[in-house]
Amino acid sequence: MSTEILNKILDKPTFKEKDRILIGKAFAVAQEAHKNQKRSSGEPYITHPLSVAYFLSELGLDSTTVAACLLHDTLEDTSLTHADLEKEFGKEITFLVDGVTKLSKIEYSDPSTSSGQASKKNHTDHLNSLKKMIFAMAEDIRVILIKLADRYHNMETLKFLNKTDQKRIALETMEIYAPIAARLGMGRLKGQLEDLAFPYVYPAEYSEMMKKAKNKYKDVLGYIDKTKPLIKRQLTDANIPVLDMHSRTKHLYSLYQKITRKDKDLDKIYDLVAMRIIVPDIKSCYEALGVIHKYYKPLPGLIKDYIALPKPNGYQSLHTTIFCEK
Ligand code: MN
Q1: Residue 252 has pLDDT above 90, yes or no
Q2: Scanning 12, 103, 107, 132, which has its CA 20 to 30 A from the CA of 3?
């Protein structure tokens, strides 16, 4: 299994021969260093750094970062030293691995287990200072990306840990790492991290949401699939070049938050499934919106211009909610 993932990384067309040599060497060194260790799942430890490396290679990161991913736990968990790494891989990779190691020493305190009655305000202050500390200590954005990918894989394999660790790690993910992903504009990762944490942090609410939403998602997805070609034709007829159209479903935790925050029922949530239309430039965005509103009446108050008014993380797009077919 390990070699299969390694080959997938090495096969990336953006990597040149020297990149493949570097990644292959990092893999060999990491595998040797972790050789007697196992994950809680019982799998060889190397499956973890390999998954982290694969995740970031899929996002298009360079070979230096991918090599650092493979080595990210060696300083903390193996006998390899700073000097060993620097000798084999140079300053940059060592700096990245060192950065990830430092971040793991930042201590998060779970509000439910911390001594005394930690007030809500104290906990919010604690979270804000942790997030600031993470950005300050990381120095390099790649360190944070490795940490996020590391957390993603740890969340995927959280079921193998004991209950106490599960709860603490899931809560930390929800309160620290998902917001960091959001801040970096990594909306999908934010949603994935929250959804992985949701069942551990709020188990009862999670099963409730699952029960309620499961069939709903299926219905609306089917509907979107039917509507997509229609809208595509309307746009093409109006000479708007459509680069891509895809649907996204609202992540379960984000749906739960919306329902709780706005005290709404599921039938009044209009963005359970949304269609994304990608066009080449800003002018085409406004034109596409115009065409869509020509065919379908928008719901008042739900047209949002995030191009003129970007979200704090830089996100820009136009949103609308329409009365579509039927
Ligand atoms: Mn790790």
Answers
A1: yes
A2: 103
